[in-house]
Every structure is written in C-alpha cells, then in structure tokens.
Amino acid sequence: MVARARSTGRPTERIANWVVASALLVLTIPLIILVAIAIKCDSDGPIFVQRRRVARGRQYVAFKFRTTLYGSRGGRPTRVGRFIRHMHLEDLPQLINVFRGEMSCINPRPDRPFFLD
After folding, report:
1. Are 63 and 10 in contact (CB under 8 A)?
2. 99 three-state secondary structure
3. Model-level pTM?
4. DSSP per-residue letters across 20-73
5. Could you give the number of structural domains in the chain?
6. Does some domain include residue 61?
7. Among residues of the chain, what percentage have pLDDT more than 70?
8. Parent domain of 92
9. What digits encode the pLDDT tens for the residues 4-57?
10. I want to staple 21 with a disulfide (CB 3.0 to 4.6 A). Which of 30, 42, 99, 106 is the partner?
C-alpha cells in the first residue's frame, strides 16, 4: 500500500489547486470519456496506468491514460495511444491527483521513486 502525499502547502495553494482541478475536470469530462472509450475499443487492458511518484517525501499513485499495448514494458504505442500522446492528453487523469491533494498544478513534476534511491 502506498501512502498518499497530501498537500502540505499553504491553504490558499490547496484551495487554488482544488478550484482549478474541479473546473478542468468538469470541462474535460466529455473528452476524458471519449478517450477512455477509444482506448478500450482500440486494445485490451485497462484504460489507466498507475505510476508511483514521490512528492514532498511521500509516495502516491499518479494516474495516466494507457498509450501502449497492454503488458509491454515501454512498448509499442497503440494507434489511439499515438494520438493521445500527440495531443498531450495522457496526463488528463492526473487532475484527479490534483483534486485529491496529491499533486499540485504549479509545483515541479514529481519524481519516480527509483530516481531517489
């Protein structure tokens, strides 16, 4: 089980992140649904991939759209996956992490755990 990295920033930063993530989720939910359907129709496997990240000294799981063939490590992108990457849509599910307080809209990109070991 991975501990969630809760935002320890100022309350105004947390509120701003929550407002931005909420607004973007509401605006992009139709696009997120369309991308999820396209991924499911294009290949077998899950719609999302989960990546462990470290921020503020705590680990959490970041969500992304799956863009490669299921089961291939760093493998070949699917047809839909190439489009998702080209349009920079693979990170849209990370709005959920921002909404939950695990990430911030402004802070630096979180590290992967093995880079810190």
Report:
1. no
2. helix
3. 0.75
4. HHHHHHHHHHHHHHHHHHHHHHHSSS-SEEEEEEEETTEEEEEEEE--B-TT-T
5. 1
6. yes
7. 81
8. 11-116
9. 445 455 788 888 889 999 999 999 999 999 999 999 999 999 999 988 888 767
10. 99
